[in-house]
Amino acid sequence: MIVSKNLCFTYTKPEETSESISFEKYSAALTDININIKQGEFIAILGRNGSGKSTLARQLNALLTPTEGTLWVKGLDTADSDNTWRVRQSLGMVFQNPDNQLIASIVEDDVAFGPENLGIPTEEIRRRVDDTLRTVGMREYALDAPQFLSGGQKQRIAIAGVLAMKPDCIVLDEPTAMLDPSGRREVLETVKALNRGSGITIILITHYMEEAATASRVLVMDGGKLVMDGTPKEIFRRADEMKALGLDVPPVTALANRLIEMGVPVSDSILTVEDFLNDGFIQTLMAGA
Amino acid sequence: MKRITIGQFYPGDSVIHKLDARVKLLGTLLFITALFFVGNFSGYIAGAVFIVALVQMSRVPFKLLIKGLRSVIFILLFAAFLNIFLTPGEDVVFSFSFIRVTREGLSMAGRMATRLVLLITGSSVLTLTTSPIRLTDAIEYLLMPLKIFKVPAHEIAMMMTIAMSSIAMLMDETEKIMKAQAARGADFETGGLIKKAKSLIPVMVPLFYSAFRRADEMAAAMESRCYRGGENRTRLKPMKMTGNDYIAAVILAGSVILILMVGILI
Amino acid sequence: MTNITPFIETRALTHIYNEGASFEKTALDNINLKIEYGECVGIIGHTGSGKSTLIQHLNALLKPTSGQVLVDGLDINADKKALKKIRERIGLVFQYPEHQLFDLTVYKDVSFGPLNMGISKEETDVRVRESLRQVGLSEEFYEKSPFELSGGQKRRAAIAGVLAMRPELLILDEPTAGLDRRGRDEILNHIKALRDEKNRQTIILVTHSMEDIARVTSRLMVMSHGKIVCDGVSAEVFDRKAELLESIGLAVPQIAELARRLREKGVGIPEGVMTSGPAAEALFKLANEKGLI
Description:
The complex is a heterotrimer. Chain A has helices at 53-60, 84-90, 107-118, 122-135, 151-163, 181-198, 209-213, 232-236, 239-244, 251-261, 273-278, 280-288, and strands at 2-9, 30-33, 36-37, 42-46, 68-73, 76-77, 91-94, 169-173, 201-205, 217-222, 225-230. Chain A is built from 12 helices and 11 strands. In chain A, the strands form 2 sheets. Chain A has a 6-stranded mixed sheet with strand order 7-8-9-4-10-11, with helices on both faces. In chain A, strands 1, 2, 3, 5 and 6 form a 5-stranded antiparallel sheet that branches. Helix content of chain A is 39%, strand content 18%. The longest helix of chain A has 18 residues, at 181-198. Chain B is mainly alpha-helical. Chain B has helices spanning 15-18, 21-37, 41-58, 62-70, 73-86, 103-129, 132-143, 153-183, 193-199, 201-224, 243-265, and strands at 92-96, 99-102. Chain B has a two-stranded antiparallel sheet. In chain B, strand 1 (92-96) and strand 2 form a beta hairpin. Chain C is of the alpha/beta class. Chain C folds into 2 domains: 8-250, Rossmann fold, CATH 3.40.50.300; 253-293, no CATH class. Chain C is 39% helix and 21% strand. In chain C, strands 6-7-8-3-9-10 form a 6-stranded mixed sheet, with helices on both faces. In chain C, strands 2-1-4-5 form a 4-stranded antiparallel sheet, covered by helices on one side. Chain C is globular, with a radius of gyration of 21 Å. The termini of chain C are far apart. Chains in contact: A-B, A-C, B-C. Chains A and C meet through helix 6, helix 10, helix 11 and helix 12 of A and helix 6, helix 10 and helix 11 of C.
C-alpha cells in the first residue's frame, strides 16, 4: 500500500514568496525513511513535537513531496504530479484542528466536498454522503451546522468527508489532541471500526500511548528519522529507550517494567489494565490473597 | 456568545431557504440597488415591510437580525454623523462655534442610516437563509459571463464563501484574545484615540497570526480533499430552477418594483 | 476557625448564556465553592461542563447571571473600579495561551502585564526575570521573538506573562493540552515548583487529563452540566468515585484504576496510589510478604 525508499525531505523556505510566518510544525526534515505499510494495517506513529511525524503525514498525502528518494502510494510515485490527485483520493487525511478543516457550513455539504472535487455524479455523491455519515454515526446531524457540534463530532464529520472519497487508507494527524476524553474515545472507536469493518488502512499520529497501544504496529520517529518499528508490545517493552526519546509508555506498562526491574516476574508485554490483571504472576498473587 | 450574524447561516427548511440561491442573490442585488433610488420615508417603510415579510417566511428569529445590526452600530453612527456635519444646507437647526447642524444634514443622516439598516438586514436575510456553498455556486453562476475576460469566477466565489464562513470564527477568536489580554491588565475602554488604537496591537497581532494559521491549515485540508479549482467539479445539490423558483423570482422582482414606485412616486 | 473568611468563595453562582433566547444555555448552575490560600485545586470535566465559564467568573471576565463571587469576602462585581485590582490578584492563563503572544521579544511580552498594572520599570524587570526563571526560560530567550520558540517554550513564555503579575491565585486552563510528553513534563514540573517555594502559590488547574491532576493537585472538583458533582481530596475521589467519574465519561488515571480493581480482587494495595512508582513498591512488598519472590 505504502512503500518508501530512502525518503528524504528538506524544507527550503521559498524566498520569493512572502511567507513571513513559519509553520515550523511541518517543516521538520526527514532523513532516509524506509517504510512498508500493507493494506489493512493499523499503524500508530509516535514521536515528540518536531520529530517529523506531521511532515511524513503530508508526504503520504502528496501535500509535500520527497526531495530525495521515492515514496509510492498504491504503486503511484507521489513526486509525479500526474499522480497527485489519485494519491489524495486513495489516501485521505484528517487534521488536528476540527475547526480549520471543515469547509462548508452544513454537515452534508462538507462531506460532499471531496466527491464534488472528484467529479462524482450527483446521485452517487448523495449515496456516499448518506452512507459515510451513517458509518461515523452522524446521520441525524446531516443538516446541522458543524460550528455547534462537539469536537469529537466535528472530527467524525471530517472522517466522513474523507471516507466519501472512498480511500484505501486514512492518515490522521493528531486528531484527538484538542478533544476531551469522551471526544477522544468517539474518534478512536470510529477509526478502529473502519479498520476492522472495512479493512481501511489507518495511520494514526498521536501523543497518547493508550491509543498507540491498540494499534497493530507502532512507528517511532525522532529527529526526522524512523527509529523504531514494531508491534506495540515490542516497542513499549523498550521503556528506557522510549524515555530517552522523550516518549511515554502506557502507565501500566511502566509499572510492569518497574516490577520486572525489581525482580517481580510479571510479563514484559503488558499494555492494558486487563493485560495486567490477567498476568500469570498477578493471578497467583490474587489467589494468595 | 455569537454576536455577529452577517455572513452566518441559519439552517432551516422554509420556502426562503429552499429557494434557488441565484434567485435570492439577484433579488438581494435588485433590492439594494433599489434602495439607492428610494429617497422618501414611505419607500423605506415599504422596504422594511418587504424584509419583515421575508424574515417571517424564513422563520429566522428576528433577534439574529437585530444582533447583526448591533455589531455594526458604530459604522451606522459614523455614517450618520458624517452626514449631519458635512451636508451643506441653509436651514440651521443648531450651531456652536464651527459646528453647524442643518435640517438638510439631519434628514440626509436619517436617510443614510435607514438605507444602511435596510441594506444590512436585506443582505443578512440572504446569508442567513443560504448556505455559503449554495451562495458560492450562485455567485459563480452569475460571474460566468465574465469568464470570457479570464475572470476566475469560481475562485472569486470560493474566496468569498470562505471569507464569510470565517467571520464567525474570527469574531470568537477576537473575543478570546481580548479576554486573555484583559486578564493581563489590558484596558480597551479608557484613554484617547491614540491610546485606544495602541491597546489594540496586543489583539491584532495574535488575531492576524491565527487567521494565517487557519488559512494555512484550511488550504492543506482543501488540497488533501482533491480541491483543484472549479474544473470538473460536480455538485451534491446541483442548481436547478423549479416552477417555484420562477414564481418567486417574479414575486421578488415585483416587490422591488413596488418599493421603487412607492419610494419615487409617492 | 469557624468565622474565617475564605480567600475565594462563590455563592449560588449561576450563569446563563443567551438568557431569554430559545437557545439559552445554563453553563453554571448554583455553584457554591470555597478555596483557601495555599490550596492547589484541580477542576475536571468535559468540554461544555462549565469549567471555563467558572474560572472566567473568578476574575470578573464574565458577570454572574445571579449569585456572587467573593474574594476575601468582598463581591468582586460590586465595584467597577476594583475590577483592575481583582484581575491583578487573580491571574488567569487561558487555553492555548501561546496564541496571545504578540510583542517583538519574549521579555517585552512578559512585561506587558506588570506594565499595565502601572509597576515601575525596575520592579517590572525584577518580575520578568523571576517569572521567566520560574518557567525555565533562561536569559538567552529574552530577546527572541516569541514566534521563534517551540510549542512548549511558547506556552511557558505565555504562563510567565501572567506569573509576572504576581497573582495571589493562579488559574491555568488546560496548560498541557496538545503538548508532547516533554512539554507536558516541563510545564507540570514548573507548576509544581511554584508550590515548593516559600510562599506556596494558590493554584486552580483546569484540565481533562487525569494524569495531570494525579501529579499536581491535592484537591479535586468534578464538574458536569454546570454543577460541581464531586469535591474532595484527589486520591480519594479517584479511589471512591471511580464509577461516578466513568458515568460522566471521565476515566480515572490508569494506575488508580488498576489499584482499585486489584483491591476489589483482594490484593491489598493502599488507597491513594495513582502513579507507577508507589504502585510498584506496594506490589513488590506484597509479593515479598507472600514469599512469592
